[in-house]
Write a structure and sequence with these properties.
PGP-like_dom2, 2 domains, six-stranded parallel beta sheet, HAD_sf, HAD-like_sf, 6 strands, 12 helices
C-alpha cells in the first residue's frame, strides 16, 4: 500500500530522526526464528503431522501462532508457544522429562538462532532505505526486542547498513523495563539520539511495535507481514500513521524527507 498523493499535501510533524525495529523490519529473521523454535522443540514435542507440515512450509511456524509472537521479547513469546503446544499438540506441562520451560525455550531458541544468523538477509528495501536516510542526514537508532548478544550476531553480515545507525537499544537494556507495546524502548531510543519522540519516525512490522511507537509519541510507518488477513491488516491501518507493503514503497515527502525509493527504482 502506498500513500495517496493527496495525503502528501497534508501538514505533518517535522521528522528529525528515524527509529527502526529490527526483526522482520530491517532483517528477515522471522523464517530463521521459526526454524530455531522448531529446532528447540524438536520432533519429540511437535506432532509428526505438524512437523511434516512445517518442514514442507519452508520450516515456518503455524501462522495462527506466529502472528501472536511478532514484536515480543522472549520472556513474552515463549509462554505463548508453550501454551499453544500444550493446547494444540498436547505437550505436557507437568512432566519434567518432556515439558519445556519458558527460560529453556528462550535460551535454546537464542542459541539456535545465533547459529543460523549467518544466513540472515536484509528485508526488501532495507539497505537502500537506510542508505538514503543517511544521505539526507537523519540520525537513526534500532529499538529491538532482541537481546544485545543476538543483535551482535545478526548484524555481522550487514556492516554497511549498520554503519549508518548511531544507537542500538536492545530488549535487555536497563531502561527497557517493559517490552513492546509499552513505550519504554522507543523513549530510550529517542533519548539516545537526543530527540523528542514526537520528532521521530518509527518503522515496525508488528502491531505490538506500532502500539509501542505510538505510545511513545512517535509517528509510525507499519510494514505488516503479507500473511495477515485483510481484517487483521485493518488494525495496522487504524493504529499506524502510514501502512506500506514494503520498505520500497516508503515516501518521505509528506514529512519533508527527500527519500522516495519507488521513484528512484522506477527511474
Amino acid at each position: 500500500m502506498v500513500v495517496e498523493s493527496s495525503e502528501l499535501d497534508k501538514p505533518a510533524t517535522r521528522i528529525k530522526a528515524v527509529l527502526f525495529d529490527l526483526d522482520g523490519t530491517l532483517l528477515d529473521t522471522e523464517a530463521l526464528s521459526d526454524k530455531a523454535i522448531l529446532e528447540v522443540l524438536g520432533p519429540s514435542l511437535v506432532p509428526a503431522r505438524v512437523w511434516k507440515e512445517c518442514q514442507e512450509d519452508n520450516v515456518r511456524m503455524p501462522w495462527e501462532l506466529k502472528k501472536q509472537l511478532l514484536g515480543l521479547r522472549g520472556s513474552e513469546w515463549a509462554p505463548k508457544v508453550i501454551k499453544y503446544a500444550h493446547e494444540k499438540w498436547n505437550v505436557p506441562l507437568d512432566d519434567t522429562r518432556t515439558a519445556m520451560t519458558v527460560q529453556g525455550l528462550w535460551n535454546g531458541w537464542e542459541e539456535a538462532l545465533n547459529r543460523l544468523c549467518e544466513e540472515v538477509e536484509a528485508c526488501p528495501g532495507a539497505a537502500e532505505l537506510v542508505t538514503q536516510l543517511a544521505r539526507v542526514g537523519l540520525p537513526m537508532a534500532l529499538a529491538t526486542s532482541s537481546r544485545q548478544s543476538a543483535v551482535d550476531k545478526k548484524r555481522k553480515r550487514h556492516g554497511t547498513m549498520f554503519q549508518h545507525i548511531q544507537a542500538i537499544v536492545p530488549g535487555d537494556h536497563p531502561a527497557v523495563q517493559n517490552g513492546k507495546p509499552a513505550p519504554d524502548i522507543y523513549l530510550e531510543a529517542a533519548r539516545q539520539l537526543g530527540m523528542d519522540p514526537t520528532e521521530c519516525l518509527v518503522f515496525e512490522d508488528a502491531l505490538s511495535g506500532v502500539r509501542s511507537g505510538k505510545a511513545a509519541g512517535c509517528t509510525v510507518v507499519a510494514v505488516p507481514d503479507p500473511r495477515f488477513s485483510s481484517e487483521e491488516k485493518q488494525a495496522f491501518q487504524d493504529e499506524a500513521d502510514v501502512v506500506v507493503s514494503s520498505l520500497w514503497d516508503f515516501d518521505g515527502r509528506r514529512w519533508g524527507i527527500d527519500v522516495h525509493l519507488a521513484k528512484r527504482t522506477a527511474g
